[in-house]
Amino acid sequence: MLNRIVAALVLVLAFAATVLADATADGRAVSDAFAKACSAGDVAGVMALYEDNATAIWPGEDEVATGKPAIEKLVKGACKPGSGSSVNTLVSQDSKAIGKDYIFIVGNWDATSLGPDGYPVKVQIRTTELLHKSGGKWRYEVDHASATGVMEYSLKAVPHPTRHPSIK
């Protein structure tokens, strides 16, 4: 009897570890695909990562975008090719499986965009996301990002009279 209990416990733990590993890998794959597509200005690639009825709340936006047409407006404004306005680097991510078709993610990103003067500004972004598996693919059901503060602002942006002479 004890052998059966131990065997069942081992199976349950092995299954739980597999689900956790899959949630981590699947969540990371979606985040990596988003970073690659957005940084390249690939609007179609970014939009393929969203459910038709998804909701997105991004930093600096005045409204909640629900549905692909509204989210696409956000994407077009944020993911501009060749402008340096959207270079995203995933710093950390914690993914948790919620049933077999949902993953909850808390992530931290570094994002570089151009400031009003054309110089780069690095910002920390915190994300809370809900992925849904449909049609065999993981997609955002909810994508909420918030800026947690400016990490670095180019010293070149400091007005000339106060700028150090070594900065050109």
Could you give a quick summary of the protein structure above?
With 168 residues, the protein is an alpha+beta fold. The chain has one domain: Nuclear Transport Factor 2, Chain: A (Roll), CATH 3.10.450.50.
Lateral arrangement of strands in the main beta sheet: 2-1-6-5-4-3
Helix/strand-derived class? Answer: alpha+beta
How many beta-strand runs? Answer: 6
Rg, alpha carbons: 20 Å
Percentage of residues in strands: 35-45%
User: What is the N-to-C succession of helices and strands?
Assistant: HHEEHEEEE
Q: What is the average of the pLDDT values?
A: 79
Biggest β-sheet description: 6 strands, mixed
Indicate the overall shape.
globular
Percent helix: 25-40%
The separation of the N and C termini measures 77 Å
Task: Give the name of the CATH architecture.
Answer: Roll
Q: Treating each run of at least 4 consecutive H or I residues as one helix, how many helices? A: 3
User: How many domains make up the 3D coordinates?
Assistant: 1
CATH topology grouping? Nuclear Transport Factor 2, Chain: A
Unreliable spans are 5-21, 160-165
Name of the CATH class: Alpha Beta
Write the layout of secondary structure elements.
Layout: H1 2-40, H2 43-47, E1 50-57, E2 65-66, H3 68-78, E3 87-97, E4 102-114, E5 120-134, E6 137-153
Parallel strand pairs: 1-6
Antiparallel strand pairs: 1-2, 3-4, 4-5, 5-6
